[in-house]
Design brief:
mainly alpha; 3 helices; elongated; transmembrane
Length: 101
């Protein structure tokens, strides 16, 4: 039993020393991930602008259909669609300015 504990202890010590010797600095990986994520921000904000434009067109068509049908809640639907488009544009702009891109 004593030999088994000694082998387990030596194996654990060997693994710990190996990990400590071959471990790399984590800062390089964090910096690489940071640069990669920042590289996607311009594409992401452009995508959000495009989604806002598509939603604006869909909303305009829906509001136009309601207006032609004479529905009384046309202004409520128009404000909801307009608010969602403004929200997307504001969020994209705030994210871009928050991260300094």
């Amino acid at each position: 039993m004593k030999q088994y504990k000694k082998k387990v202890w030596l194996t654990g010590l060997f693994i710990a020393v190996t990990v400590i010797c071959y471990a790399q600095n984590g800062n390089a990986g964090i910096d690489a991930a940071n640069n990669e994520v920042r590289g996607y921000f311009n594409s992401g904000t452009n995508l959000m602008y495009a989604i806002g434009a598509i939603l604006g067109l869909i909303g305009a068509i829906k509001v136009y259909q309601k207006w032609n049908n004479g529905d009384p809640d046309t202004s409520k639907v128009a404000s909801a669609w307009f608010g969602s488009c403004v929200f997307l544009v504001v969020v994209a702009t705030v994210i871009r300015s928050f991260f300094g891109i």
